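Lecture 7 notes: from sequence to structure.
We start with the chain below.
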Amino acid sequence: MSRPGVVELGMPYIPTDVERAATLARHPDDFRVSGDGVFATLQGEGLTAGAPVVFLRLNDCNLHCGKDGVGWRCDTDYTWDKTMPEYWRESRVVPVEDAAADLQAAWTASPFRLPDSNPRAVISGGEPMLQRRQIVRLLPHLPGWDVEIETNGTIVPPDELRVCQINCSPKLASSGNDLRARRRLDALRAIDGFPNHVFKFVIAEPEPDLAEVRELMEQVNGGDYERVLLMGEGRDPGSLEERHPGLVAFAGELGCGITDRNHVFWFGDRRRT
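Predicted structure tokens for the same chain:
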């Protein structure tokens, strides 16, 4: 007789929800880290695209882009989708001090690091703001580092994170998330008040997406697009290239910038890039 949570046919042991919850309860101050963990690469998107960075990819998210086939599918779905074996087999709890040491070691060993480049960490997910207390505790362990935090803009960041670059990607209707889940104006307005932030919108369905961007930014900051980037949705070079002409036209209409998913062109649709 098999135990609950055990997969037969030689598959690895997968904990049940109850077992996972018990593990997290024993380690409330530690990071919940995805199977990607810490890795060195080049930043593929946004204001610092092309810069050498070290990623810390966390687990769990409060939004589920493309779940059940609705909307475009998240490219890190293994960090939150409990129907995927990777979520159970790969995730782990990591003390904040160990995460800092892993970041330092990865930066030192990075093949992309230049001798005079400032160390830069990108905390991604999942949704990192679910673990904002741990991030606040991490920062003192990274003196002299530039830190970027990627967020979906549904959780108000604590003031301690004002020293970080906030890369906020509010989700539109084309992501498949309900309006009540994806739109939190209090959080977006708080992020708009941070000194170093950018709003990045994933454009999948051009006309409705653009209309929603206009509506949302009017509510957030009166329609100021100085810190707004548009990025095409896609997980292969062909799909992304097809969206380039439209993005350029839309950026001209709004008076904002564009960014690409450069890592897809550099490395392909692969994890840990």
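Points to note: Confidence is low (pLDDT under 50) at residues 1-10. The longest helix spans residues 237-254.
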